[in-house]
Amino acid sequence: MANIMANEEVAKKQRDLAFLLDFSRDVAHVRTKPELEAAIFRVFDKLLHTKLSLIQVIGEDSVTLYPFMYDQALRNGSNEYFDEKVVVPGTVKESYTAKVLASEEGLVFNVDEEVASGNARAKFWKATGLGNMYSLPLRVGDKNIGTLWLLANSLSELVLQGLAAQISIAIANIQANEKLFAYKKQLENENLYLKEQIGKIYNFSEIIGSGPQMQEVYKLMSLVADSNTTVLVLGETGTGKELIARAIHNASSRKDKLMVKVNCAALPANLVESELFGHERGAFTGAFDRRIGKFELANQSTLFLDEIGELPLEAQAKLLRVIQEREVERVGGKQTIKVDVRLVVATNRDLENEVKAGRFRADLFFRLNVFPINLPPLRDRIDDIEPLAEYFVAKYSKNAGRRVMKISPRVFQQLRSYTWPGNVRELEHLIERSVLLTTENTLQEVFIPRKPATDQQENNFIISNRSLEEVERAYIIEVLKRCAGKISGTGGAAEILKVPGNTLHSKMKKLGITKADYFSKS
């Protein structure tokens, strides 16, 4: 008899283990709550003859208990109690729940004994015809995540512990998947919002400027936008090279994907390759995870490399290979990755001089200089200063909560007479400051620096093999053009040249300067 009983015990354990193995296989594929529910009801009812009373999960506040899953069949004949006690949130401080969560392996409540003690829940348990309520804590590691309540006549401890462990893991996975889905949805919404904002802010038609120099830029942009040709945007600091790059991207067939930007001047020399081409885990000290480079990130989109002239020579060689082969290799990696990237690069340097000085590779320059677009400096776009100023006044008035409606003629004259070494960016910042300092509806004053021209710009007028008189005449004509022909008064040429108006008139007469030289009808 002892042998028979021992054999039966072994056989029972084997059946329990086989049951748990099958259940774990079912649960391993679970990713959603309905899938877990189907797996539990299939196993509990058919194999264990057990009723799932309730699964509760602990909320993020670590106090509230929310009903996660329960058997709808138990609602029959006890709707009132079911709605009041089962399908409403509770707390971990409730007496029965607190006991279960504090226990190591769960508790067993005899239904008849609980009815005799006056437990309101026991009447609900009694209606099922089953003898015991098995209550177990659901844990992942040392953390309680909920409770499991099962009605059955008899269940082995092995089965109970196995069920609790498997269900705990399944619920933790479901919660993690739900959070990931929520984060993914949030990122998709933010991405959509960002695309909409970029479409509004960087629309091709919203680049401000209608002078002949900008018309030529628009013409070149329209010719190259639909192609995959590499574009080299040249211009001084603050002329709006990134704005042009975005406009080209938004007018291309790749506009549905975000343009990826890299500021080459801001990259440390030892991280340039990692940033552009990516790296594998363990490729170098600090490379704890695999990193996707900007070329991979911009696949089937546009990659804008700003300040390309700042790249170190070693990185230039690897960039040339990527442009030629259209494939990248991550730092520390052995696999080549094909990429379909449209390049737009920009610089404020003279790359031809950089090549002559040995600071920029000639072969890379020829690869990039396929379709150059030269952005004119603001001092050569006098006619665009007025619409730009009006745009920035409207923008910063709204941002600052001011009601600056217009700009006085005196201010326009001052703006036109300044040489703008910082170009459009300098104009934008000057207008922003002036708007913040004004308390009227009309902008009456702007705070232009006292020295309007840099030494380099002043030297632009000095040309070899010309007499002093010729250089003086050319310089006065240039200043008069910037001042729209105004000689005296605020913002006039005399003020910039720091001479009395009468003296300037005499100088012009002596040098033979007439209106035809500095003031055209157009």
TrEMBL record:
One of its GO terms (biological process) is regulation of DNA-templated transcription. Keywords: ATP-binding, Nucleotide-binding, Transcription, Transcription regulation. It comes from the Bacteria. Residues 207-436 form the Sigma-54 factor interaction domain. The keyword Transcription regulation applies. GO terms for molecular function: ATP binding; sequence-specific DNA binding. The keyword Repressor does not apply. This is Fis family transcriptional regulator. It comes from Flavihumibacter solisilvae.
